[in-house]
Amino acid sequence: MVQDNLCFCCPKYDGPKRGAGDFVAVGLNMVGADKIARCISKITGKPCGCNERRTEMNERWPCKNKDDSKT
Predict the structure, then answer these.
(1) In terms of pTM, does the model score above 0.85?
(2) Is the pLDDT of residue 29 over 60?
(3) Which residues contact 63 (CB under 8 A, 6 or more apart)?
């Protein structure tokens, strides 16, 4: 899904925060959870689903734009 030319599914997205999923992803990456998830995925042969959860959280709890508060 793309909104305002921003891809919601990109695992390496480095733009402005789009929602709660981006904040959670940054925090988990800081403690190394992304590396653990990749290792588990290699062992089990199944995708971790991190990007799907991140996308869902961004869509459920998006960041408010500064323009939205004026209305």
Answers:
(1) no
(2) yes
(3) 16, 17, 18, 19, 22
Q: From the centroid of its chain, how far is CA 70? A: 27
pLDDT of residue 24: 93
Rounded Cα distance between 50 and 22, Å, is 11
DSSP state, 31?
A: T
pLDDT for the residue numbered 2: 45
Q: Is the dihedral of CA 67, 68, 70, 71 positive or negative?
A: positive
From the list 36, 2, 30, 29, the residue with the least C-alpha distance to 58 is 2
Q: What is the pLDDT of residue 15?
A: 79
Measured CA to CA, the distance from residue 42 to residue 49 in angstroms comes to 13
